[in-house]
Amino acid sequence: MKYVLVTGGVVSGLGKGVTASSIGVVLKACGLRVTSIKIDPYLNTDAGTMSPFEHGEVFVLDDGGEVDLDLGNYERFLDVTLTKENNITTGKIYQSVLHKERKGDFLGKTVQVVPHITDAIKERIESVAHVPVDGKEGPADVCVIELGGTVGDIESMPFIEALRQLFFSVGHDNFCLIHVSLIPVLGVVGEQKTKPTQHSVRELRALGLTPHLLACRSAQPLLDNTKQKLSQFCHVPAANILNIHDVPNIWHIPLLLRNQNAHHSILKQLDLLSIATPPDLEAWTRMAETFDNLTDSVRIAMVGKYVGLTDSYLSVVKALLHACIACSLKPSIDWIAASDLEDDSAESAPEAHAAAWKTLRNAECVLVPGGFGDRGVLGFERANSAEFDKETPNPVVIFMPEGSRTHMGSTMRLGSRRTLFQTTDCVTSKLYCNAQYVDERHRHRYEVNPDIIEVLEEAGLKFVGKDETGKRMEVLELPGHPFYVGVQFHPEFKSRPGKPSAPFLGLILSAKGQLEAYLNRHQNGS
């Protein structure tokens, strides 16, 4: 197994995830099979209980893993299906070591960070790296590892030490370290400063790891003298100093790396030049350039709870982008805080209330990602969700019987679940190519109360998708409406560039009045 380790220095939020994903894309384009691991040094076992305000969205995998949003980038960029094991956290490592200690597996030894924690990290990395994620037999050729946080963080020290040991054990030709750093420009002179990167590399080397390549983030392309300075003081050949400057869209990043021969430097370090092919990135080039050249747009109102941090809905935004590009449109998203639409806000914040409603009325389509808030239905007095009002006499949404009321982590209905369409003569089934069923990813504790389904359907709603028991509601439509679709699952998690999610595609097509023509074409097999 060959390993590519991506670390970050100077500041967080430099785009290590996109860089790691793009490196994977370029290596895959060279004919290699690629898998990915994200290391998160926080003590949480997984991202499931973390607020979106803290860490962005929680990405859900097929196996029910609640993981860091960077794994969503890996899946979208590399078109692979990862598992919860591809996200390694401090919490998981310590939990496994302490479980062994309680069982007596250490035979009375003093359990320490070195060697027991570091050994557990190495074992976890090596075992996960050999699990295929691309639907083929056997392990991948290269495993791209992203170490979260910034070099020098106390919480990441055990991982740095474990990775140093891994480098030593697998050998020089099987390990490539790429350090992502920042080249700031200060003052009116506009000089590109290398000192922060020098300090970051020095700290990394003091911990026993020397980068083979530098990936330098900057607003503008690096100057030649900046590269020479970095090469001289960071002990990295000038040819191995990559510049990831700001680009119109992130799909340009793999192309940027290819144009700087990043693949050649990585393949040379990993002794893979003899089996790799020249990178074929024609599809990526078309995709990036198509997006750059789009002129027509569609106005989308996104009504949510966490609109203050757009990373909270990262996969939803990406799914909208994929759907829009499939329709040759550029997404224009207007973010609306759900609370600003409430009647109460008309008195407490009248300007925000008026602005929110004006934005909503001007939109061509409305997307509500996830469930929240109180809303009356069917004239039921105090109709509500049991999540918000446990004493409501008319619970329209109820707690799932199999859920846990005492534990939060990994107790929801999670992962890929099958939805059976009750009829193929419905918009959603047609968008899924007349499928009789669909497998989508779920993340919820509450569901529509089965006892009121009949009343809801008599009032006009139609539940066209149900789970395999036939009792749990999965998809609803409002007949006669241009496009009114609600789904229990999260279709955004399986959307890919070039393969947009069906419900999102339907929304965009309907917003532009193209849905019926699209469905007719696909009904006729064209």
TrEMBL record:
InterPro entries membership: Class_I_gatase-like, CTP_synthase, CTP_synthase_N, GATASE, GATase1_CTP_Synthase, P-loop_NTPase
Reaction equation(s) it catalyzes: UTP + L-glutamine + ATP + H2O = CTP + L-glutamate + ADP + phosphate + 2 H(+)
Top-level taxon of origin: Eukaryota
Record bears the keyword Kinase: no
GO biological process: 'de novo' CTP biosynthetic process; pyrimidine nucleobase biosynthetic process
Record-level Gene Ontology MF annotations: ATP binding; CTP synthase activity; identical protein binding
EC nos: 6.3.4.2
Transmembrane segments: none
Pathway stated in the Swiss-Prot or TrEMBL entry: Pyrimidine metabolism; CTP biosynthesis via de novo pathway; CTP from UDP: step 2/2
Keyword line: ATP-binding, Glutamine amidotransferase, Ligase, Nucleotide-binding, Pyrimidine biosynthesis
Stretches assigned to the Glutamine amidotransferase domain: 403-507
Claim: Ligase is one of the keywords in the record: yes
CTP synthase N-terminal domain ranges (all copies): 2-272
NCBIfam families, alphabetized: PRK05380.1, PyrG
Cited PANTHER family: CTP SYNTHASE (PTHR11550)
Annotated family: Belongs to the CTP synthase family.
Function: Catalyzes the ATP-dependent amination of UTP to CTP with either L-glutamine or ammonia as the source of nitrogen.
Name of the protein in its database record: CTP synthase
